[in-house]
Amino acid sequence: MILLFDVGNTSIKIGLAKGKNIEQVFRINSVSNMTPDLYAAQLNQLFDPSIIEGVIIASVVPEITLSLKILSKRIYKVNPIVLGPGTKTGINIRTDHPQEVGADIICGAAALESPNPTIVIDLGTANKYLYIENKTLLGVVISPGVVVSIKALVGSTALLPHIEITTPKNVLGTNTVECMQSGVTYGVAGELEGIVKRIKKQINKDAHIIITGGLAKVIMPLVDIEMEVRPNLVLEGLLNIYYLNQK
Questions:
Q1: Any catalytic annotation for residue 96?
Q2: Model's pTM, two decimal places?
Q3: Could you say which of 96, 104, 122, 206 is catalytic?
Q4: Residues 202-238: pLDDT tens digits?
Q5: Looking at beta carbons, which pairs linking 74-82 to residues 24 or more positions away fall under 8 Å?
Q6: Are residues 116 and 216 in the same domain?
Q7: Could you tell me the residue range of the domain that residue 7 belongs to?
Q8: CATH number for the domain that contains residue 8
Q9: Are residue 56 and residue 133 in the same domain, yes or no?
Q10: Do 22 and 117 share a structural domain?
């Protein structure tokens, strides 16, 4: 089995793949000061370490990257592939500073097989909108994600409570919690529709829309745009990159 790590600021998404298929997906919290042994103890509760034949890591948290590299060598007895400079991705990055493009963005682009114009929407700690065509990343939009927005709202306002991220019954709320839930969920939905419209206007062509990320299922019903849901898109791209680097 191939072990896939998608390390974000809030959580680590973990995939177990056999061949080209991702068979199991897990999620654990991102803890930057956790030791390799503690990560190993968590992972050993999810799967048998003896089944792992290869490891690939895409990470935006350097401290966690180091811990996962150590445990890969110590527990799984393999040298992990860490997505970074020198890694084959199959993606042409046409941006001003390609070295600044995040690992998760690269993986999202690497998951696409079609050469047709595609907009990928990844709703996570940050909301990311990628425009890809012919295996080329041509531009990105990044905005604060729902969790970041809530933390900023609560942290800056003494009387507002922490809330669960769910969609209220109506856009107009009648209590504080529903008002906040409406603002963050319908707010992201409105942002998504507006940004997609502006991207299409800039590129002057139609594009296939793919949505992924932890909040995709919450936001998608609120949006009046036809989209394909691919919850494991980043892991799919990571798996493609793994095999590309075996050649």
A1: no
A2: 0.87
A3: 104
A4: 999 999 999 998 888 889 999 999 999 999 999 999 9
A5: 74/36, 74/40, 75/40, 75/49, 76/3, 76/49, 76/52, 78/52, 78/53, 78/54, 80/54, 80/55, 80/56, 81/54, 81/55, 81/56, 81/57, 81/241, 81/242, 81/245, 82/56, 82/57
A6: yes
A7: 2-85
A8: 3.30.420.40
A9: no
A10: no
